[in-house]
Amino acid sequence: MGAGPEPGSTYSLPVAFIFVFNLVIGVGALNLPHASYAAGLVIALIMLLIMGFLSYVTMTFIIEAMAIGNALNRNSQRTLESQPLLYSDGKVPAPLNTTNINEDAYLEEEQSSYGIKERIEMGRLSEMYLSWFGKIVFNAIIIVYLFGDLAIYAVAVPTSLQRLAPGFTVGSWTLSCDNSYYLYLACFVVAVVPWAYFNFQKTKYLQIFTMVIRNTALLTMIILAIVKIAKGEGKVAEVKYFNWQNFPAFFGATVYAFMCHHSLPGIITPIENKKKLFPLLFGDMFSIFVVYGLLVGTALYAFGDSLQNASLYTFAFQNFAWQPLAIFLESFPIFTLSSNFPLIAITLRNNIIMLFKSVMGEDRVRASPVLRPGRERLADVIFTSVAVIPALCIAFGTSNVSFLVKITGSFPGLSIMFIAPS
Hints:
Shape: globular
Number of helices: 15
Strand order of the largest sheet: 1-2
Order of helices and strands: HHHHHHEEHHHHHHHHH
Number of strands: 2
Helix content: 55-70%
Strand content: under 5%
Radius of gyration: 23 Å
């Protein structure tokens, strides 16, 4: 999962297409060939198509909720500023009608009260539409998902480094392949984690650069797999087509691969012209399905059984003949995931703070030595530590990326993508 745009910025539909594409395609894409090998090619392609379509449908649910939320806020502000509680004839003003809105009504930027101009995050939407208990449960699910996200990133980076340098000897001291993982994880903690204690966002130019690097690597892997198949070096006979026994694990991987709903409000709000928003999202999901389908199909036919041990697809290219290209493919997750880790940690920190404030209530927050106004920096330090330490503990306990993707996608990911928007 990639990162969102810089708050307060605006951009055109093509840039929004890039943001959504970059947001969806992340480490989940690199796990798909491994998961598809276990489930079978036909099951994988069918599930990717279904999941991409359902992801688009639930995106429209979130956009409708944002539109109604904007209208409610706009109507509430007008009511407080200018509308009397009672008209002169004693009648009560009619409430805002939030039913039967057509698509053009809330996608029209200037001519409709349903125009999405105010950024309303999913946590805020839960406060508007759910009960106190529902709001707490929803925020807890978001937090669990982001914990899983951080753990996946914290495992994927040192695992990729371990593949590049599985062990080495310095003088009389030898570091084994297994122990090198923990060394690289410690380096990750020192070099990357401190950035999570600051407040910063990527610019759209860095987003575009990240997308170029990421998709160059994906396209390169697809082309290399096609070349391998064309040369007759593929593993067509080893491809499985149906394996229902591994369907549950693959389901979690597909949910994680299409997950972006929790960051959607930050992507949608700054778009300058939202009239063609639904076609844009549909085009994004279809393009992502095509990329995933090509990635999975070529991977299975090119590498076959060797994907069983490649939890990230880049690992399959470790013994590629041209080593500079192999090093590029194996190292690109290191840079992209390392740059995203602080952003996910900051998002998780903010959600934890929001959950604490919701549970404690306004009076207790004002009396709190950590959360009261004026103590924001202290709260950031404490809750950033709360966010990153459990994920790092998980990373020290396991290096199994596939297991973490399966758990994160199957439970909290499923709730955020399907249950909450509905």
